[in-house]
## 1
Amino acid sequence: MSRVAIVIVSLLAAACGQEIGDECSTSLDCGDGSNPARICDTASPGGYCTEQGCDWNTCPDEAVCVRFYAASFGNRPCDPATEDLATDMCSIDEVCTLRGQCVPRSSEVRYCMRTCSGSGDCRDRYECRDESLMREHGGEPVPKPGERLTGDLQAFCAAEP
């Protein structure tokens, strides 16, 4: 193999596995080490390159910051459309999720998740989680400060349950 071919193959290999949502086995598969926040979530099928602890505007272009809640709580029901406006079902240390449950703010964990517009945009064993699937399976985009989760929510690739 010529030197040029070796260089091209090396460059292509180095570029693989560096985007949010890519397959991985270890965090080293998710980048060159220049971004210590980039990790491999090995609990997801085939691994999932992500960044933990993101905010509404900190994920790379191919991703959106999504908040999940660490456990399922049997807390009070709430209406995410009216909470903190016309109603106050949740206490000050709780948030009303898209699922319509008050959950402790302290149980929130955030990850950058690959954006999608249809199931063909996601890897095998992953779904393009739109608002309907967010309500059913969990996860919701982190809104800008002072804004509510309304309108056309950005869908994201997440493991099928």
Note: The chain has one domain: 3-159.
## 2
Amino acid sequence: MYRWRYVEIELERKLRSSGAVLVAGAKFIGKTTTCMRFQKSFIKLDRKSAIDLARLDPESVLKGGHPRLIDEWQSVPELWDVVKRDLDDEYIFGKYLLTGSSTPVDKTDIFHNGAGRISMVRMRPMSLFESGDSSGTVSLSTLFDGGKVTTAHNDMRIERMAFLICRGGWPVSVIADEDIAIDITRNYYDGLFLFENSRNGFWRNKKPDVMRAIVRSYARNISSEATKSRIIEDVRQNVERSLDPKTFDDYKEALDDLFLLEDMEAWCPSIRSKTSIRSSPVRHLADPSLGAAALAVGKKDLLSDMETFGLFFEDLAVRDLRVYAAALGGEVRHYRDNTGLEVDAVIHLKDGRWGAIEIKTGGSENVEKACASLQRLSAKLEAKSDERKASFLMVLTAVGDSYTRADGIHVVPLSALKA
């Protein structure tokens, strides 16, 4: 059963404004299934025979109705230039759809960036609203337009949220029976680092144990500003293996190319004061289930350590916020300055509107602390920045009801949110 995806909004918009659209993201998130809903013809480059033919006669890959879907195009990187040249000769909006589960294995084959002709859409695992695990009673779009949050009861339990963290947003896991859903996710994780049959040396030469070690370190440092040196030292201590910075950069690039890591950059509004905004990224995975699988932890393990649960829940919330923000044409960043003021997420739209969000597991004390941080950020920017006033301030929780406080700050469970 197909479930509608927010990326379809972006995809439809891009097909009307670009000659070709690249849909990029990790394996098994549903790129091909979603793009098949938009294509008029397609070719899948997931077999050796198809890849060999595409290398011998790349122009033949373009033959068919438009939009023409070229699935796993990065298997034949020179197709990028073939598509670009074809658009130079005959530019038509929505002519090609390209999907890819990694950045091209040989980037030197791409001589032109395709600017103005080929646009990119980042597809992510399913958000809770897409998987049917959020009621969607609170809309970010409505809040940006000045709407209110209606007080509403929410039935989400902490045990269920721990399960959702471990299951992840992989479509096959989402539609599976719950007793095997996490097994499916872990099977997926176990197969991520098998490159011995790759036709390209870049992947064949990657040591699976090193890649797994880096993902495990990310999981141990999830939702934190862990430095590169800290991650390298963590890998060394846990696998008893030396890892120099250059090698780390090479392996991290490979994991980025597979769309498994997605660090969150800092939001840097212009502030007229001596305040120094920290620019360190916050470490995040494409889906929290990758971290749970890497550390071999289940929902009972998370529930027995609420600090770890909170960090993994933050990763889950960031995943969903990124899906929703992208549908609104925005991006998600974090804020931290030298006064100690931190805010977990800021959604910034292209028209300058923004909303600030603190992510907490729940509980009145945690909500109060989160609201204090949001109020400080709002006051600081209102007094010392050219940024417009926040469209909304929100505390996003794992459990609890939706409501708006007397000070105007919204308290919303993640399982009630949508774009």
Note: Residues 128-192+260-418 form one domain.
## 3
Amino acid sequence: MPSFRVVGPGRAGMSLVAALAAAGWESIGLLGRNDDPTAAAHGVDLLVLATPDAAIREVATSVRPVPTTVVVHLSGATGLDALDPHVLRASLHPLVSMPDAEVGAQRLVGAWFAVAGERRAMGLVRRLVDDLDGRSFPVASGDRAVYHAAAVVASNHLVALMGQVARLADAVGVPLDAYLDLAAGSLDNVRGVGPSAALTGPAARGDVKTVEAHLVALPADERDTYRALAAEARRLAGRREPGAGT
């Protein structure tokens, strides 16, 4: 089985170590901030830079290149140029949320991965995905920012939205779990029939009075988010803004 080393003992790095080890890959050490990464690419088939995006380039340049070692980063937004001067370079961005290493390792099995890389590096990257029973798709360099923005909306912004739900639920004494079940059902509907067909609610059906009543009732600091999302619902439903001319 292939051997690998990870630089960056954070949640993503530790999750990948656990997942690959469980899949039979040989883990050859884990390097942290205080370790010298100069020889990190030596003696392994794959070197994974699981560092924050801002540190990828600096760490990559500090690693002595080995022409037979594939070097990958886990960033969704960073291009391959950050891995200069390594020849066999690639990126592997798992589309999963990893709150800790144990849960992250479980979620990496069967996950979606955005991949890119030099042709000779991609064989090992695809084997990694296959060994985790995952699925992959390519993302071109010019598309990375939009791809990653969509990932942020799907994950981070969704969590932020649930934070607003939690605040409003708490204000009226309703358990958050009741709304989480509603949200989970909506995501199931999107998976089943797509966003447009899954959309329901007052903004989607053009119920302006209900939307206005919500805005009156909401605290002032909660209204902008509601307005923005109501506008997105109208857009998805193909409806005009209230009061818009023909």
Note: The chain has ten helices and seven strands.
## 4
Amino acid sequence: MKLRFVCLLSLLLPLAPLTSHAQEAGLAERRAMAAYAKDIWPAAEKSIQDAAGFPVVIELNLNSLALAGYADSYTDADYLKNTVIEPVIRSFQAITIDEMGKTALKEKLKSLTILYDEKTAPASNYVDGLTFEDGKLTINWKPFSNAGDIEPRTKALTTLLESKL
């Protein structure tokens, strides 16, 4: 009887819900994200705006980017810098390499929103996490995920922008 129980239990365990990163951020996460916004984000925001060539309005959706259980990692380059910020900078630099690109970006890009929605963010098909409508560019990529994919993210964003500018 004991063996049957163990076998049945081993069949049911994979059906148990896994812990999700989408749970509401706790105090540690809120504190860590507030520190990120104060200490790290201003320089990152300036780098993005410098690459754009103008002070584009940027909304960093802190609540959605604060993954539960990762508060100690928010300042790690692989958390946001390599997954979102660096691809944006590189893409804007590619777009603004000449006057035509600078003018097009400045005329068409009104704002940039950076967020993470677990239900709609792609695992690796990064173009699926991008929208550019009515001058609003939205980037929905998971922080701290596939941090080495700077080039594929940059390419996805650059391709989208080039098609819309």
Note: DSSP finds seven helices and four strands in the chain.
